[in-house]
Queue: 2 jobs
Job 1
Amino acid sequence: MEATESVMDDRPNRFPLTNECHHYTRRQDVDWDIQKYWAQRYSIWSLYDEGIHMTDDAWFGVTPEPIANKVAEDLRGLVPSSKSVLIDMFAGAGGNVIAFALSEQWSTIIAIEKDPSVIACAQHNAEIYGVVDQITWINDDSFSYLSNNLSSIDPTKTVVFASPPWGGPGYTSDEIFNLHTMAPYSIKQIHEACKGIYSALFLPRTSDLRQIAKLAPEGKKVEVVQYCMEGASKALVAYIPAAV
Ligand SMILES: C[S@@+](CC[C@H](N)C(=O)[O-])C[C@H]1O[C@@H](n2cnc3c(N)ncnc32)[C@H](O)[C@@H]1O
């Protein structure tokens, strides 16, 4: 394991990189369980060599750049032009939120991430992509943030993007992934948190479509898009209109 120092950054609203944040350049420094992700680093981050930092856990959940860019494009195409605020509930190391910022389609982008080391990586990575200042960074629990800020969130202007944890790499063994038992947050808990707001949920490719269909508001339909790389689906996104 490579030793990394905590790098202090005294700019306002900047979270310092910690000992958990790494930019691995040598395979021998990378833990065995993330080596397969690190081997794909340039498919995940085209600017990896510019100094992309990740925590070890973040490798399991980061959205690869080509998929993040396509989701950003699709989301903009699906939501009405009145939507100008995007909230990313689970920003992780920044895969999706950087793509949303690069799309230049949102006047306000709010990235929420509860892990201080992970949000520090996300900010650092956003700086590499030149979009760090286009994003408002919130180091908090996104459920608390949404419930505490309900009065200032205008549902006619806002979209919530959520790429929650899927419960670890084991999710791939299920033929149909049960979204009700997804850990640590079930689909119901996430859907409740963004009730009344248009949401886009980034979920396992084998997610139970009947469970997703039940989230459609009366008289409206949910769009589900599978996102593939190199011929294989990596994930789906359920685009869910707000309930009136
Ligand atoms: C699947 S990852 C997100 C990956 C991200 N879309 C990307 O491309 O880098 C999920 C992230 O949600 C964070 N998280 C989990 N529970 C959270 C909560 N209640 N509030 C905010 N962040 C949370 C985890 O720390 C993790 O970084």
Note: Residues 1-5 have pLDDT under 50 and may be disordered.
Job 2
Amino acid sequence: MALLRVDQAVAAIAGSQVLRRVSVDIAAGETLALIGRNGAGKTSLLRVIMGALPLVEGKIEFSGRDITSMPAHERVGLGIGYAPEERRLIGKFTVQENILLPAWAGRLGAAEIQERLELIYFVAPELKDLSPRFGGLLSGGQQKMVALGRALMAGKHMVLLDEPFQGLAPALAQAYAGMLRALRDARPDLAILVTESNPQLLQSMADRMIVLERGEVQPGAVETTTVQRL
Ligand SMILES: Nc1ncnc2c1ncn2[C@@H]1O[C@H](COP(=O)(O)OP(=O)(O)OP(=O)(O)O)[C@@H](O)[C@H]1O
Ligand SMILES: [Mg+2]
């Protein structure tokens, strides 16, 4: 059974359709790459999943439950973490406080918070060193790492990463890819949905790729075999 099922989703912004009957399934443990050019609808699809953009038509199911009309704030408890494109760190909060925000919003227990922090610092050890620094004093690349940490705090079952590689220097992009691989090894049941405009970056990492163009899924999802995984 799919962990997340988006079925024939239609969404509009300012009267024009940005998603046109988009259907996407993702299974537990699967890494799905969502590829598309600027304006293709990648961010819109993630926002629809998070409940930030309403559906005009279609349906969203999570763990077999219809969440189409569940308000965004109630989805916090579903265990879906989201690292938006523009990161949205709070400058006056430390790195660790920024990572903990979803834990406070979702009222996670102390043991669960501790467990997630350990995973986050295992996957991204640099974050441990940065933890007392203020969010506003980090480089763009460092902020992307914090955004990943924050997504993992909320994302017990799934994380949505919106163009995490965009704007990263090649060395940082490699480091980030290494973190995602470490994450997959440490949490083999976690579903990862990651968007990117360049398919090459994710080819070696994703189990499957789908291409969005002008709000539509292009036919023929690309299966990338586990053998190709690095
Ligand atoms: N705030 C907005 N107001 C009006 N139109 C918008 C707004 N946000 C997005 N759109 C439009 O919705 C469509 C889909 O945008 P979306 O942000 O989902 O694309 P994307 O694939 O994430 O692009 P990018 O790679 O640039 O992040 C585009 O045509 C875009 O112009
Ligand atoms: Mg986008």
Note: Confidence is low (pLDDT under 50) at residues 226-230.
